[in-house]
């Protein structure tokens, strides 16, 4: 396993949709392993491949207390979402030093290809649901701050520019 480097905002790859994965190969499994090592080093609860410059619809999530519930996903898509909304503080290693409270559905059902190449449907709740939605945004070329009002987004990006200068 290898810890990967994050591409810095405003790298244009962070604004492009990632390509779907046709099959789960050893290369994809190695990528997942590298992403888990990278996620753990942040420390964070999720990571999408475009964050490290790999333009594939591949993500990992682990919001468990013991860091022992790794979820490896390819081509994840939300197929159902809770009407109940929840607010979490979100951030990204691609734009260090800033964060924002983001409102998202408290729970989601997601369909994805798992590490065995099987189409799987799984329900996520709380922080895990927030992380999955955050990663799916990255795969679509969106950042968490896209969920903010224009005024709040502009303030956050100004602050980030000052910090990362």
Structure overview:
By secondary structure, the chain is α+β, with helices and mostly antiparallel strands. The protein is 27% helix and 28% strand. It has three helices and seven strands. The chain has helices at residues 26-41, 127-139, 150-164; strands at residues 46-48, 58-61, 71-81, 85-91, 99-105, 107-113, 119-125. Strands 1-2-3-6-7 form a five-stranded antiparallel sheet. Strands 4-5 form a two-stranded antiparallel sheet. The model has no long low-confidence stretch (mean pLDDT 96).
Highlighted features:
alpha+beta, 165 residues, single chain
Oligomer: single chain
Strand content: 25-35%
Q: How would you sum up the global shape?
A: globular
Structural class: alpha+beta
Which strand order does the major sheet show?
1-2-3-6-7
Mean pLDDT: 96
Q: Give the total of beta strands.
A: 7
SSE order in H/E notation?
Answer: HEEEEEEEHH
Question: How many H/I helices?
Answer: 3
- Report the uncertain regions: none
The description of the largest β-sheet is:
5 strands, antiparallel
Distance between the amino and carboxyl termini: 31 Å
Q: What would you report as the Rg, rounded to the nearest angstrom?
A: 15 Å
What fraction, in percent, of the residue positions are helical? Answer: 25-40%
